[in-house]
Amino acid sequence: MGPEGLIDAIRARLGEAVEGVTDSFGDPVLLIRPQDLRAVMSALREAPFDYAVLLDLTCVDFAAAEGRFELVYHLYSLSRNVRLRLKTSLPADRPSVETVVGLWKNAEWLEREAFDMFGVRFEGHPYLRRILTYEGFEGHPLRKSYPWRLEQPRFPPKDEA
Amino acid sequence: MEPRTRLERQARPESMLLNMGPSHPAMHGTIRIMLELDAEKILNAEVEVGYLHRGFEKTCENRSYFNLLIYTDRLNYVSPLINNLGYCMTMEKMLGVAAPERAQLIRVLMSELSRVSDHLTCLAAMAMESGAFTAFLYMMKAREYLWDVVEFTTGARMTTSYIRIGGVRSDLHPGWRGALSKAVGETRKVLKDVSGLLDKNAIFLGRTRGVGTISKEDALSYGWTGPCLRSTGIAYDVRKAHPYLVYDRLAFDVPVGEFGDNYDRYRVRMREMEQSLRILEQVAALLPEAPPLAAGPAIEPEEAIRRSRAERAREPIRLSPNLEGSEKERLAGLSCQFPPVAVPAKEDAYTTMEGLIGHFLFFMAGKGIRPPKGDVYFSVEGGNGELGFYIVSDGSDKPYRLHLRAPCLHIVSALEQLIKGRLIADVIPTFGSMNMIGGELDR
User: Fold this and answer.
1) Which tens digits make up the pLDDT trace of A46-92?
2) Are B405 and A74 an interchain contact pair (Cβ–Cβ within 8 Å)?
3) If exposure means fewest CB atoms within 10 Å of the residue's CB, which of A123, B110, B288, B297 is most exposed?
4) If DSSP codes are grouped into helix, strand and coil, which group holds residue B155?
5) How far is Cα B33 from Cα B48, in angstroms, rounded to an integer?
6) Distance (Å, whole) CA B285 – CA B145
7) What are the φ/ψ torsions at residue B47 (nearest 5 degrees)?
């Protein structure tokens, strides 16, 4: 399956869940409807697409300019040696999407990171907890609304046991 | 008080809870492993990371593309040159430029030196933590020879910032050939010695063979890449799967393991170092000598500036010693000369109006490197696996978003599963074989 055929095959399989296809510096990018994300991911994980590796998951904050967060998934298929980028847009006031935990094992940590840094809620995540910052940290540091160099106490005040 | 962690909530009342880390003498790196124990047996584990989080990605959003390079040194601080390379090649993909041939060969040379030193550090720490202190000292010795080559050329052991967008900063140090062949020879000797010490060592085998085993399916599902993935038998290497630089013209093998246990991870790294040394020798043979510099008396920059007010200064200019290797004649072969991508030659900035304008246009805020709008992902084979950068540009001189795909985040996320059901002592070699680097993992 060449790159062109692949995109066609994905569109044929997933129908309306694929909102659009773009090209970014030579790499294909699929825009996915957020409510179909989990279904799309589970279809892509299986044959014939066979994206066995969730290479990366991250988020971009377009809240101020466009009123949305964009989740960016990178998948890799070992058998076909191709990468694929998928994006889905979430409203800035309530960024929430279904989890992909259960499809790939590293999703648990990657989604925790997106939650920690951007405040994106992953519905159905078994343990959505901060990962790089600490319990008691206020705000989500990679949001554009979070000031650079804002200082917070390194440790939250201890609870009285 | 409501327990904060899943482990505490789910632990049986009769279990003992134990914290390993965040600062533990047998663990290199600041990481907290919480264990639920039944005597020495681990019933459950939870790993907490982030102790070295310093806002790398946020900081990059507030730095120009040129200035943020120094932060990439501090990601995987054992192989900073590969981090430099990953970032610079991502930018080059965005800008649509390529480094000249000589710079590409130098980049491969630096990458492989870094890879060997990365693997040496990992295995040295792993061996030491399993009680093999001799192997640690041997490997640290070899690393010093390798870092000599790096230090001669880049001027630093770790914070190199040597590979630049569009090429490299300067040419190799005149004595690099001797230093390299010495380093390769010494490393070969050390690899042989360490192999002799550890390969059939009953204590080492007891702590690594069949310990920390991961299946192919799980390794892929956890997003493992690099030597850890290859230890399970999957020959995925970015240098082969998506060749960059001149790797497609070099002869090297991708060693794989069989069982995916600690011992296989050790063996894969050992064999990979041999392949890297092989690459180093090939690159040394391919790299021609640096073009000679113009002879004749050189004048001081001050004199050149004064003279160029009246007429163009023709004499060679004596550059500051920290610009050694980036003379104008050499820069052409080392760095893409497309104007706003690389630092313009210093001689021009001293003596010509255009050169001075070019210099300011490169360094002024709001000018300099401004890639087109869009987003890009590019990855190189780092010491730990696929080191990827995802950069979103809004057309300005600072990235709108920069994200690092840290290979060891994915690897360490499997630690809980690998140590569950094992003994406390197994945590040490299992964690050691993963080569967790805090700077990269926590960003």
Assistant:
1) 878 888 899 999 999 998 778 789 999 999 998 888 889 999 999 98
2) yes
3) B297
4) coil
5) 6
6) 19
7) -105, 130
Chain A residue numbers with beta carbons less than 8 Å from the beta carbon of B410 are: 106, 109
- pLDDT of the residue at B339: 57
* Contact call for A142 and B53, based on CB within 8 A: no
Give the DSSP letter of residue B293: P
| C-alpha dihedral (B299, B304, B310, B311), degrees to nearest 10 | 70
- Does residue A93 sit at the B interface (CB-CB below 8 Å)? no
What are the pLDDT digits (tens) for B64-112? Answer: 999 999 999 888 888 899 999 999 999 999 988 888 889 999 999 999 9
Answer yes or no: is pLDDT of A1 > 70: no
Tell me the pTM.
0.89
Phi first, then psi: what are they for B200, rounded to 5°?
A: -120, 20
Q: What percent of chain B has pLDDT over 90?
A: 42
CA-based nearest residue in chain A for residue B235: A78
Please report, for chain A, the start and end positions of each structural domain, with discontinuous segments joined by +.
3-123
Distance from CA of A6 to the nearest CA of B (A): 18
| Partner-chain residue, chosen from B50, B376, B377, that has the shortest CB–CB distance to A132 | B50
Res B316: pLDDT: 80
Q: Could you give all domains of chain B from N- to C-terminal order, each with its CATH number?
A: 56-289+371-442 (1.10.645.10), 301-363 (no CATH)
Asked whether the beta carbons of residue B234 and residue A78 sit closer than 8 angstroms, the reply is: yes
Select from A56, A117, A132 the Cβ nearest to the Cβ of B390. A56
Comparing alpha-carbon positions, the chain A residue that sits nearest to B51 is A132
Give the best residue of B1, B8, B54, B221 to mutate against chain A (max A CB count within 10 A): B221
Position with higher pLDDT, B303 vs A103: A103
Report ipTM for this prediction. 0.90
Q: Is any Cβ of chain B less than 8 angstroms from the Cβ of A54?
A: yes
* Architecture of the domain spanning A3-123: 2-Layer Sandwich (3.30)
